[in-house]
Design goal:
The chain is mostly beta strands. It is built from 1 helix and 11 strands, in the order H-E-E-E-E-E-E-E-E-E-E-E. The strands form 3 sheets. A 5-stranded antiparallel sheet has the order 2-11-10-7-8, with no helix packed on it. Strands 1-4-5-9 form a 4-stranded antiparallel sheet. A hairpin with a 4-residue loop joins strand 10 and strand 11. The radius of gyration is 15 Å and the shape is globular.
Length: 134
């Protein structure tokens, strides 16, 4: 019993360390995206947090997706929503601090990038690469 509990605690701790990440380097596709971002864990829920300095061009239908494809391998007009992407949320604003819960049941380790995408016109604004461990 004690071994099982220790194994579970190690797994939870390892997953949190592995998935909590941050940066400020975006890969622009059609439009420029700037600012700090991080994925952080709070009370068992992971959140995407965009910093005060976040900024991009406004769009009609901007959403934030997790993609199984590395941002470097995503085309400017790739349909993220139809190529295995999972929507986190609609972008609340094109600038400033924002916080989005990552839906429960999402295995962050299965995704290679975080993407700002306009499904209405199938346009990729830009994104960031996520650290992936196998």
């Amino acid at each position: 019993m004690r071994t099982n509990i220790l194994t579970l605690l190690f797994f939870i701790t390892s997953s949190s360390i592995l998935l909590a990440q941050e940066g400020d380097q975006w890969t622009d596709k059609v439009y420029s995206v700037e600012g700090n971002w991080k994925i952080q864990e709070e009370d068992g829920t992971f959140y995407l947090v965009l910093g005060n300095d976040f900024m991009t061009l406004a769009g009609p239908d901007l959403k934030i997706y997790l993609s199984p494809t590395a941002i470097e391998n995503i085309d400017d007009r790739e349909p993220i929503d139809k190529n295995g992407g999972v929507m986190i949320a609609g972008l609340k604003s094109n600038k400033g601090a924002q916080k989005y819960p990552i839906p429960k049941g999402i295995q962050l380790s299965e995704f290679k990038s975080l993407v700002i995408f306009c499904p209405q016109f199938s346009v990729v604004w830009g994104g960031v690469s996520l650290a992936v461990e196998n």
